[in-house]
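Quick one: sequence plus adenosine-5'-triphosphate SMILES, need C-alpha cells.
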Amino acid sequence: MADIVIEARHLFFAYNGQKVLEDVSFKIPAGDFVAVIGPNGGGKTTLLKLMLGLLTPTRGEVRVFGRPPREVSPRVGYVPQHVETHLHFPITVRDVVMMGRLQPGLKWPWPSRADRAAAAQALARMGVDHLAQRRISDLSGGQRQRVFIARALCARPEILFLDEPTAGIDPQGQVDLYCLLEQLNAELTIVLVSHDMLALSTHVKSVACVNRRLHYHDHPELTHDMMETMYPHTPGEACPVELVAHGVPHRVLKPHGNDS
Ligand SMILES: Nc1ncnc2c1ncn2[C@@H]1O[C@H](COP(=O)(O)OP(=O)(O)OP(=O)(O)O)[C@@H](O)[C@H]1O
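Reply:
Sure thing.
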C-alpha cells in the first residue's frame, strides 16, 4: 500500500469565529491525483491553505510527510488561484519560472547554473520552453497557467497543489492541461481544487467533496447521494453540477438532478 503523504485529523477552521471547516479527517496516499470539489464558499481553498501551512487550524491537525506543513514547504509546489495580479511587471517567462527556486536558506549566487537548468527543464516539461524570453504579460491564459505550473515544478516538489488551474482557459486548453497533469502524476502527488466536472471525467483518481465537512472517495465515480449532499438543488431545476459541466457528457456521474 502507498505511503500516506497528507493526513488531516479532526480539523476545524473558522475565520473570525465563522466556521468554514468542521471535523475534517482524510488521508491522501503517495501518487494520488485528487480533485477537491464543492460549492462556492464550501471551504476548498481554505483546506488547501491549511495543507500548505498558510493557515493554522482552529482545532485538529494536518500533517504532510508526517510533519507540520510549514516544515516541509520545499517538498511541495503551489499554483494559487488568480495569479494574474502582478502580471504587468516587465518580467520574462524564464524569470518567473526561476522564482520557483527561491527557497528559505537560498545560497548565492542566484540564479546558479542548477537554477537555470531546473527552470529550462520545468519549461520543457510544460511544453512552453519556446516562450522563455517572452514577457509574462504577453501570454494567453493557458500559456500563462503552464508557466505558473512550471514555476511550481522548478523546485522539484513531491506534491503539487493547484487551485482552479483551468479557470479562464478555453475547453481545448483545459483538456491539454489535464493531460499534462496526468503525465506529471506519474511522478507527483496532485491535489487539484476545481469546480469543473471535466477534471473528474478522465484524469483524477479520487475525489474529496468539501462543503464544511469532507467526504474522501478513493475512486472518481460520484454517486447521486454524494451529489445531493454536496450540491443540494430544488426539484425541477437543473442540477448545479450540470451547469458547471457545460453540457459535456461526464462518465463519473450517475443519473442525478433532471436526469433521474
Ligand atoms: N480571508 C478570509 N477572511 C474571512 N472569510 C474568508 C476568508 N477567506 C475565505 N473566507 C470565507 O470562508 C468561506 C470558504 O471560503 P473558501 O475560499 O475556502 O471557499 P471555496 O470553496 O474555495 O470557494 P470558491 O469555490 O468560491 O473559490 C467563504 O464563506 C468565504 O467567504
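Residues 243-260 have pLDDT under 50 and may be disordered. The CA atoms of residues 129 and 171 lie 22 Å apart.
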